[in-house]
Structures are given as C-alpha cells and as structure tokens.
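Z., the sequence and structure:
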Amino acid sequence: MLTDAFTAVLHQLILMARDPLIYLAINEESAGFNADEVLAIRIAKAYAYLNVYKLDEALELAIKNRQQLAEMQLSDCATLNLNVIINIYAKLGDIPAMKSYIEEAANLISKDSPSELALMIDCARLNSGHGNPAAAREALDTIAAAIDKVEHPYCRVSVLRCLAIAHSQNRRHDLALTYFSAAYDVASQNQISIQTLDIAIEMILVCAHLKKFEMAERFYNVAGGLIDQLRLPVYRVGLYFNYGILRTIQEDFRASVLFYQQSLKALSEIPVKLPHTKFKIYNNLANTLNYLNEAEQALRYQLEAEKTDCR
C-alpha cells in the first residue's frame, strides 16, 4: 500500500521527469509549500540533479535528505532517496559503493513497504552485477512475475526499463525490445520525458542488434528531439555512442568512427568524470579503427583506454 508521503514523492518525480532543468528552478522554501511538500520536492530535486548529470550536487542533496529522513523515520521515502545515491555510483561505475547503499536500502524495506519500492531495489541489485548467472536469472524471473503489481507509472517505467537493460546485457535482445517498448509506451503516455529519452537511446542499440535499422533511426530522431527539448546535450554522449554501434553493425566503419568521436567530444564538454563511459568509447574507437586497418590510430585510442581509471 502506498503511503501519503511516498505517493507525494512519486508525484514530484513525475513532475521532475517532465523537465528536470525547470524543476531545479523551483524555490521550495519561498513558494508556499507545506513541510511534506518541501521534503518531497527535495527528494525529487536529487533525482533531477542526477538526471542532468550534476552528480556532486545530487549526492550532496541526497546525503542531506538521508539525514533528515532518518530523523523523521520515513523509511519508504528514505529508500527512494537512497536510490538516487545508488544510481549516482552506478553512473560512476563504483560497484562496491553501489552495493553498500543497496544493502542499506534493502534493510529499510519492511513487510508494510510498497511492493513497488522493493522491486525498484531488487532492480538496483540486479543491475549492480553479482557474478552469479543462476541468481541473475532467478532475480529476473522474480521481477518479471511481479511487474503487473506495479501500478504507479514512474515505478512501472523504472522496473520495465531495468528488465530491458538486464536482458540487453544478456544479449536477449528480443526480450529487451519487448520490455523497452512497454516502458517507452508508459513513459510517453505519462510525459515522463527524461525516462523516454533514456529509453529511446537504449532502443537504438537493441534495434541495431536485431537488425531493425529503420526503427533504430526513428529512435535516434526521437532522442535527438528530446535532447533539444529538454536542453540536455549531455545525453548526446550516449546517443552518438549507440548510433556508432549501429553503424558498426551495418559495417559502415567510417561513420562509426565519426560518431564515436562525436560521443567523446560530447563527453569532454561536461564537467563530471565518467571513466567507464570514456573507456568504452576509446575501446570501441580502437576496435573500429582496426577494422579499417588504421593500426597506429587504433593503438593510440587503445592506450588511452588502458590509462582510463575504471575502478
């Protein structure tokens, strides 16, 4: 059952997801909000900072929220807030820190907690990786079996997307497409724009592996339009990278190199350091240049990849 405080945060997350930059401009202290609304807005603002890749600000606010929520004994809202910290470390590729906060979140969940919340933390645990294929399959089956119980659109999109990502990583691209398509429909219908953007970028990769090239092109255009609409050029890093993979699969290696280089350029223009992302771009550039028999340039990118700290 959803509590009033938990529902209030979910409502703010929907509003935030429609335009994170505008949401961050809210002054919750001087706009006549009551105390519960202020708290919900601050949790959603941590998500907004995360979504615009201001990770230092996201972490600072989430840690501040964490202290206040502990004092107020709002465990369900505290778990939602911890999910921000989990996702920050996921973007940074810091799996030990990610797992530590996942366990803290899991310990806050009780038998009275909303089932949506437990599933979101199950998804975080699944995507943190645990080196146990059998356990991963069991977790996937458990989450998939419970998805119909997830009614709130923000949570539903999050869980569907988690399932899609897990299947994509396991190269079950048909299943990934099914879950991404369902997540995309819910996100679009509820104007959850930032999740719609993430899913559109991810769909390019899945469609490329399935040789659904026209569909991949459509999602490339959708994502480009949303990046402009939301004024978030940081998302061009993932957009160009996945489009580069599409071009590689099509054996258009020259175009692939161009898009990987554009992805690298977009990454250089943002203040946050994403070593795992940089490593992947360098590595793909090196591999693609080897296809083109440009060994010297390929070696240069491979050496850059090896210098990248991905711990």
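The chain has a mean pLDDT of 92. The CA atoms of residues 89 and 234 lie 17 Å apart.

Let me know what you think.
H.
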